[in-house]
Amino acid sequence: VSEFNPLTFTSIIECEKPNNDLSRFRGCIIHDNGKKAGLYKENLLLRGCTLRNTEAVVGIVIYAGHETKALLNNSGPRYKRSQLERQMNCDVLWCVLLLICMSLFSAIGHGLWVQRYQEKKSLFDVPESDGTSLSPVPAAVYSFLTMIIVLQVLIPISLYVSIEIVKVCQVYFINQDIELYDEETDSQLQCRALNITEDLGQIQYIFSDKTGTLTENKMVFRRCTVSGIEYSHDANAQRLARYQEADSEEEEVVPKGGSLPLRGGAGGHQTQSSRAHWRTGSRAEARRVSMLTELTAFSSPMEKDVTPDPKLLEKVHECGRCLASARHQEHPLDHLSPELSDVFDFFIALTICNTVVVTSPDQPRQKVRVRFELKSPVKTIEDFLRRFTPSRLTLGGSSVGSASVAAKSAPKAGLLSTLANDDTLLRLEERLGAGAPHLASNGYSSAADGWTAEHSATGPEPRPELRYEAESPDEAALVHAARAYSCALVGRLHDQVSVELPHLGRLTFELLHTLGFDSIRKRMSVVIRHPLTDEINVYTKGADSVVMDLLLPCSTDDARGRHQMKIRSETQNYLNLYAVEGLRTLCIAKRVLSKEEYACWLQSHLEAESALDNREELLFQSAIRLETNLHLLGATGIEDRLQDGVPETIAKLRQAGLQIWVLTGDKQETAINIAHACKLLDHDEEVITLNAESQEACEALLDQCLRYVQSCSPQRTAGSLSVGFAPLCPPSEATASGPSLVIDGRSLAYALQKNLEDKFLFLAKQCRSVLCCRSTPLQKSMVVKLVRSKLKAMTLAIGDGANDVSMIQVADVGVGISGQEGMQAVMASDFAVPKFRYLKRLLIVHGHWCYSRLANMVLYFFYKNTMFVGLLFWFQFYCGFSASAMIDQWYLIFFNLLFSSLPQLVTGVLDKDVPADVLLAQPQLYRSGQNMEEYRPRTFWLNMADAAFQSLVCFFIPYLAYYDSDTDIFTWGTPITAIALFTFLLHLGIETKTWTWLNWTACGFSVVLFFTVALIYNASCATCYPPSNPYWTMQALMGDPVFYCICLLAPVAALLPRLFFKALQGTLFPTPLQLGRQLAKRSPGKFRAPGETSAQGHIPGEARTEPPGQRSFSAARSVSQDCSSRVSPGARQPACSPEAGGEPSAVDVGVLQREGTLPDGLGSQPSRSSSPGPVAVEGCPGGSRMKPVSASRPAHLPSVFSVPGLSSLNWMSSLSLVSGLGSVLQFSRSGLPMDKRDGDFLPGSAPPDRDLCGLSGQTTDCF
C-alpha cells in the first residue's frame, strides 16, 4: 500500500461555512475523475479532541484559528437575568421617576420663591456678568437640572457593582462547600454562571431527565427473551442482590464525609485514588492513577460478571454442536432449527450491533497493515462488486492487540484467524504444531476441518482480559452479556468485527455500514457480510415502540405466520413485564438482503452521503428504507439502578414546594416503575395516564381529565382545614395536592399543539407531579419553555446527556451532571453537580441564602439612598429650593463610596437568616423565596416610606437642636452626616441575622474611618470654600455635648417604628423564617443535617397486590377506539358517614357516580401500596370520621411551637439590639398562620415532635 503523498493530492474539498454545530458536518471530496465522496461528522477531527485506538490518520485542515468549532462554541454560558434583577430594574425605574418628581417639585418651588422675593433677589442670587439676574422660569430650569445632579444618589448605580461583588463571593463559598464534593467521582459543584445565584432560591418547577440523572446510568444485563421464550436469569438477579446488600453494608459502616466506594469500575478506581490522595496528600499522583484507570468505560464487576441462564446457555452450546455436525455442509446455519437460529443471530446481534471498541490491557499495540480494499467501507457500486467475492474476506482483523489476545485465548486445538496478508499472517504451525491453516471460502478458517472444540482435554482455559469501551452503557452491558455466553467480541476495525464463538472459534464479519443511533429513529443498525453464509445481513436494535412497527407483516394463513405472530405477542408481554420491573427494554431484529436489494439501497445511500444540501433528511430516509421488514429475534431487559439519595432528595424538594417533572425517553411502564422507586409517585395516590393515538382523542381525553380533576378538588380539600395556625408542610402530601400525570411521547406531541397546550398546561398544573415518557429532546425543551412562558414560573432543568442540552438551555437555571454520557450537558449548564442528590443542598441551603442575602441587600440600598437623598431634599425648604446641600461636598462623595459600603457587602456575603441544618430539616422554609417574601413591591414601598420617615427624623432633630443659634452650615451638616451613618449601621444591624467578627469589624471600621477623615479634613481645610470653611468643625463638635445627644437620640427615634413593627409582626403573625430562627436557637442540636442515606439500589419488580378494601375505577365507555387513559385513585380519605356501618361514604359515592364520565381506559391502575396504615377516629358532626394515619411522619416545624413556654417572640433573639424583649411580651401561640400558595391552604398541624417535647420554656435567648 503506497503512503499518502500530500504533494500529489489534487482533489477538491467542498464543505459548509464555519459554524458552531458540533453534531453536524457536511462536505464532499471531488476527485479528478469527477467522482464525489461524502464527508460527514465522523470524518471531522475537532480541535482539542484526543485520538484513541488509532494508529495514524491522514487529514487536511479545513477550519483554523477562530473558525474552528471549538472556538465558535467557546462563547461561555448565555447571559441570563435573574428574577430578582428584573424586579430590581423595575424599582430603579421608580427611583428615576421619583428623582424627576423631586427635582420638578424643587424647580417649581424655586421658581415661585424667586418670583415672590423679586425685591430681595440681590441678597440671595449671584448676578450674571452683565449685572442682570435670572427670571423665575430660567431659574426653575437651572434648579431642575441642578437638583438632578444633587439627588442623583437616589439612583443606586453602586448597587449593581455591589451585587456583582456579592455574587462572586457567593459563588466562591458555594464552590468551597465540602458537602457538595463527591469523593467517589472526585468532583465538586461548579458554578458556571455568576449572575443567577439568587434564582436558585426561587425555583418552582424542576424538569429532570431520568437515565444518568436519577439513575446511575450503569446498565446491568438482567434478563432477556429469545424467540418468544423468556429467560429470567435468576442466578444473575441473586448476584445483583448481593452487590446491593454489600453496598448497603458499606454505606452503613462508612461515616458521613468518609470514602463511599463505588460499585466497581472506573469509579471504584477513582475512589481508591481519592483515598490515596487523602493519605499521601499528592493530588497529582492520585490524578495520574485515576487517569490510568479511567481508560476503561462501563467495566465494573457488577456490569461485567453476568451469570448466564442455564437453559439459554444450553441452547447456545446446542447451536455450536449443531454447527459442528454440519461443518462439511455449504451453509451450516440452514441445519439449525428456527429457534436455535434465532438464538445464534440474537447473540451475534448483541455482539456486533454496536460501536464498542476492544482493547487489551496487557498487550502492546501492534500495527496492522491490510489491503486497501479492506481499509474502507463500501463507497461505490464497483467497490461493492469487487469486494462481494467470498475469497476476498478472510478471518481476522482485530483492534488493539487482538491478534495476540486471540492467540492467548484460543485453545490449543482451536483456531486463530488472521488477516489474509503475508506480512501479518501468523505462523499457526508454531502454536498448533500442524500445517498451515486452510482459509476456507465460506469465511472461516479451521484446523482439524475448520472447527474448534470449546474445551480442550485439560479443561477450559481462562478467558482473556478484554476491555470494552462503549459510547453508552447499554452497549457495554449487552456485549458483556453476550460474552458471558462465550460469544465474545474480540476485535473491531472500522470495516471488520471479530467474534469468538463456542465450537466455531473466531469469525470475522465484514462491516459494510453502521447506521448510528439517533433520538428520532430510536434505533441503530449494522450492515454486515456473514462469514458463514456470504449473505448481507442487517441487525437492528432499538426501542420496542419503533422496532415492533418495522417487523415483516405476518400472514395468519400459514403455520409459520401464526407462529411468528405468537412470538411477537409473547415478546410484547415480556416487554411489558420488564417495563413493570423498571428495566430498560431493547428489541433485537434481523433482515437478510439480497444482492439486488443491497445494490439498490447502496446507490441511494451513497447519493445521500455525498449530498451537501439536506443530507440529514436524505440519510434518514435511507435508513428508513433499510430498516423495514425485519424479523424479530428477541428482547433484552437492562437494569439501571437509582443513584444514592434520590428518593430522599425528591421528598425534600417536594416538601420545599417544588414540582418535579421527569422527562424521559424510556418506555412508559419503565418510567412509572422507576418513578415509584424514587418516590416521585406514591403508591397510594391517583395517577392519570394519558395515551392518545390522534389529536382529536388527545383533546377529548384532556377535557375528560380536566373535568375529573376539577370535580375531585373540593373533595380532596374537604376536612383538611383546621382552626388555628396551619403547619409549614402537610402531614400527607398525597391528600394535600392533586394527582400525578403520566403522558407518552405521542400524546405529548399532540398536547403541545397551539390549540391544546393551554388545556395540557392547566391539567399539569393541577397535578402533583408529571412524568413524560418517550419524549424527544425537542419535546423536553418545548415543555420547559411552555411552563416558563405561560405560567411565569421559575424553572430548573437538570440532565446529564446531549439530549438534555436544549432543555437545560431553555430553563431559567440549567444544571448539568458530569456523567457517563459526556460533558455536553455540563458545558451548556449554569451549574454542574456530581450527583442528583446534591441538588437538595444547592437549592434549599445555598439557593435560599443567596436569594435572602441579595434581596435584603437590594432593599437596604434603596432604603439607604432614599434616606440620604431625603436629608438633602428637606433642606431645600429652608434654602429656597436652590439645590444647595448642608452636607459637605467631600462627605457626599465619600459617603456611599467609603463610609457605608463595607458593612453592607459583608452582610450580603455572610448573612445566614436560618442555619443550614434547620433549612435541610425544614425544607418548607424554601417557600419564602418562591413567594418572594423578602423582596416584593409591597416591601419595596414600605421600605421607601420608612426611609422617608427616618430622613425626616434625622433632619429635624438636629434642626431643632440647633434652632435659633449662630451655628453655621458646616457645624449643622456634619452632625447630620454622622447621624445618617449611625442610623444606617443600626438599621443594618437590625436586618442582620448572623453576626460574625467581620460584621463587627466592618461597622467599626466605617465609624472610625468617618471620624478619621473628618478630623483630618477639617484640620487641613483652613482656606476651603471662602468666605466660610469647615475648618476645625469636627474637633469643635466632639467637645459639644449636644452633638453626642443628637447622635444617640436621632438614630433610636428613627428606627423605633421599624423595631416596633417587627416586634408586633413577630408576636402576632410570625413568619416561618422567624420561627425557624427561633427553633435554631432553642434547640441547636436537634436539627443537624442528616447524612446521605442509600437509595433503593434495586428497582423492585415484584407483583404488587391491591390492599383489601381498596376501591378502584372501572372501565367506562369509550371516547375513541385509538386512545386510552387510566386513573388510579389510590387510598382516599373517607368522609363523615351517618352510621358506622358498611354504607359507602360520601367520597365513595361520588367516585361511583363519576365512573360514567370517564373515557375508555380511564379506569383503575392497581395500587402498589401495601396495607393501609392505622386509622385514627376524629370527631365530626353526625358520626365519626375515619382518617388514615401515616405510619411514619417527618417532624414538622410548627409542632415545636405548641410546646408550652416557647414564645413566638423568641425570634427577636436574632436581633442583638432587642434580645431582651422576648421576656417582656409573652404572647404564646400554638402554631403558624396559614401558608397560602397558589390559592391552596395547607392542611392542619401535625402532632408535636417527640424529640422536641422536652424543650424548657420561659427562657430568653441572647445573642
UniProtKB/TrEMBL annotation:
One of its GO terms (molecular function) is magnesium ion binding. It is an enzyme of class 7 (translocase). InterPro entries: ATPase_P-typ_cyto_dom_N, ATPase_P-typ_P_site, ATPase_P-typ_TM_dom_sf, HAD-like_sf, HAD_sf, P-type_ATPase_IV, P_typ_ATPase, P_typ_ATPase_c. Its EC number is 7.6.2.1. It catalyses: ATP + H2O + phospholipidSide 1 = ADP + phosphate + phospholipidSide 2; a beta-D-glucosyl-(1<->1')-N-acylsphing-4-enine(out) + ATP + H2O = a beta-D-glucosyl-(1<->1')-N-acylsphing-4-enine(in) + ADP + phosphate + H(+). It is a multi-pass membrane protein. One of its GO terms (biological process) is phospholipid translocation. Coiled coil: none annotated. Mg(2+) binds at residues 209, 211, 800, 804. It comes from the Eukaryota. The active site is at 209 (4-aspartylphosphate intermediate). One of its GO terms (cellular component) is endoplasmic reticulum membrane. Residues 826-1071 form the P-type ATPase C-terminal domain. Residues 1111-1127 have a biased composition (Polar residues). ATP binds at residues 209-211, 475, 517, 541, 584, 664-666, 774, 780, 803-804. Belongs to the cation transport ATPase (P-type) (TC 3.A.3) family. Type IV subfamily. This is Phospholipid-transporting ATPase. It comes from Muntiacus reevesi (Reeves' muntjac).
